[in-house]
Design brief:
This protein has eight helices and five strands, in the order H-E-H-H-E-H-H-E-H-H-E-H-E. With 188 residues, the protein is α/β, with parallel strands linked by helices. The longest helix is centred in the C-terminal third of the chain and has 17 residues.
């Protein structure tokens, strides 16, 4: 187990990352669905489910999804599920907000859900810590990058393309691990 930690540290040496990372122009980020290999499977960030439920997913992403094998990341599904518990049950709008989320979660086949391994959790945690430090995130918000790191590494580890609209955090992740395959989009 300790060898896993040292291996992760050697891949992502925290001492190498001392300066704040600058965000790049959208022109330098992967927004083109045409560059995704035709045989690539897809893995969604929670933004995809949310935008799909709201009818704000761009047509190019909808078309891409219709033509590919889709996997679902346990951390993204957890982000959706936390909403179910977080909404006020006494608010009359809660039921109409929760029903589409429950419907989405129930329609997903368990055989299509990918769960992070212990090694992915460790690596994501180290990277989240590096980003928190270099980007000046306060100590109480240190875990801010953790789910994004988990999804990013889970997609890479499983050979999937991560689809997300979170261009800000993914830009930073791509600077740390530039060979990951990601497709970014803007909601309509």
């Amino acid at each position: 187990m300790s060898s896993d930690v040292w291996s992760i540290i050697s891949r992502h040496d925290p001492a190498r990352w001392r300066q704040t990372l600058s965000l790049r122009s959208k022109n330098n980020l992967p927004f083109d669905p045409m560059r995704i290999p035709t045989d690539a499977s897809l893995l969604f960030d929670a933004t995809v489910y949310i935008d799909q439920l709201k009818g704000q997913l761009p047509l190019a992403i909808v078309n891409l999804i219709a033509s590919r094998i889709i996997f679902h990341a346990a951390p993204a599904l957890a982000e959706l599920a936390v909403t179910i518990g977080a909404l006020d049950p006494a608010d009359r709008r809660t039921r109409s907000a929760v029903e589409p989320i429950v419907d989405t979660l129930t329609r997903i086949s368990p055989s299509r859900i990918i769960v992070p391994s212990y090694e992915v959790w460790l690596e994501a945690s180290v990277i989240a810590g590096i980003l928190s430090r270099t980007q000046g995130v306060s100590k109480q918000d240190r875990r801010r990058f953790l789910n994004d790191c988990l999804l990013f590494l889970l997609a890479s580890d499983s050979g999937c393309v991560l689809i997300t609209r979170n261009s800000r955090d993914v830009d930073l992740l791509l600077q740390l691990k530039p060979h990951a395959t990601v497709l970014l989009y803007d909601k309509i």
